[in-house]
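Why should sequence recovery work at all? Because a backbone constrains its sequence more than one might expect. Tight turns favour small or flexible residues, buried strands favour hydrophobic ones, and helices have their own preferences. The token representation captures these environments compactly. In the example below, the structure is given first.
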């Protein structure tokens, strides 16, 4: 059976995003990959349109050889306390409810109250500024 028009449209859209083709686990050129898809019979095609890297098109003749790895799990976010500690190491200026405080006081506040809102910013190599508040922080 030849490749369906819908399949070819899908694969061609991945080609436009510089997809990498694999046949039986080995990297092949885009031209070769398209030729295999159009001409081979009894193949299994996996596509994975990765967000942060090139999409992949994997072609197999053995249905048990499905091998596109899942995208990596994103790293765990840094806890707010760890973020404040990191910012203290970067010599940030801290504010609590609009009043300047020391980094030690900021860390102490974070340890005592887990519901503090934090807004951290830095620009053009200047010292970072960390605003902390029990109220919502409006971003301008």
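From this structural description, the recovered sequence reads:
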């Amino acid at each position: 059976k030849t490749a369906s028009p819908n399949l070819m449209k899908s694969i061609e859209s991945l080609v436009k995003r510089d997809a990498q083709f694999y046949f039986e686990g080995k990297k092949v050129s885009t031209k070769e990959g398209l030729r295999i898809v159009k001409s081979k019979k009894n193949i299994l095609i996996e596509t994975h349109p990765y967000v942060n890297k090139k999409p992949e098109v994997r072609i197999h003749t053995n249905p048990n050889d499905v091998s596109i790895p899942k995208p990596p799990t994103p790293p765990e976010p840094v806890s707010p306390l760890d973020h404040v500690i990191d910012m203290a190491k970067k010599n940030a200026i801290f504010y609590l409810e609009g009043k300047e405080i020391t980094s030690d006081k900021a860390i102490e506040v974070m340890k005592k109250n887990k519901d503090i809102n934090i807004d951290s910013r830095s620009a053009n190599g200047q010292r970072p500024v960390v605003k902390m508040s029990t109220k919502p922080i409006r971003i301008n």
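A few observations help interpret the result. DSSP finds four helices and eight strands in the chain.
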